[in-house]
Amino acid sequence: MTCKRVRPAESRADYTAERAGKIVRHGLCVCAEPAPPPSRRAARRDREATLG
Ligand SMILES: [Zn+2]
């Protein structure tokens, strides 16, 4: 993988000012993030939006 973005901190201790700076510079990497399961709430909101 050639992604040079910064992976999100896994814990508060991991979230340092240095990491935050790198994320700002290189962007936050979400390659390893598993796709979130479809949210029922979101679907419901969609339907409500359609109904107007
Ligand atoms: Zn990445």
Query: How many angstroms does the end-to-end distance come to?
Result: 44 Å
Provide the helix percentage.
40-55%
Q: Topology as H/E string?
A: HH
Ligand list = zinc ion
Whole-number count of domains: 1
Total beta strands: 0
Ranges with pLDDT <50 over ≥5 residues? none
Q: Which structural class is indicated by helix and strand composition? A: mainly alpha
List keywords for this structure.
52 residues; mainly alpha; 42% helix; binds zinc ion
Short summary of the structure?
The chain has 52 residues and is mainly alpha-helical. The protein is built from two helices and no strands.
Characterise the protein shown here.
This protein has one domain. The protein contains two helices and no strands. The longest helix has 12 residues. The protein is mainly alpha-helical and 52 residues long. The structure holds zinc ion. The site of zinc ion (ZN) has 4 residues, from loops.
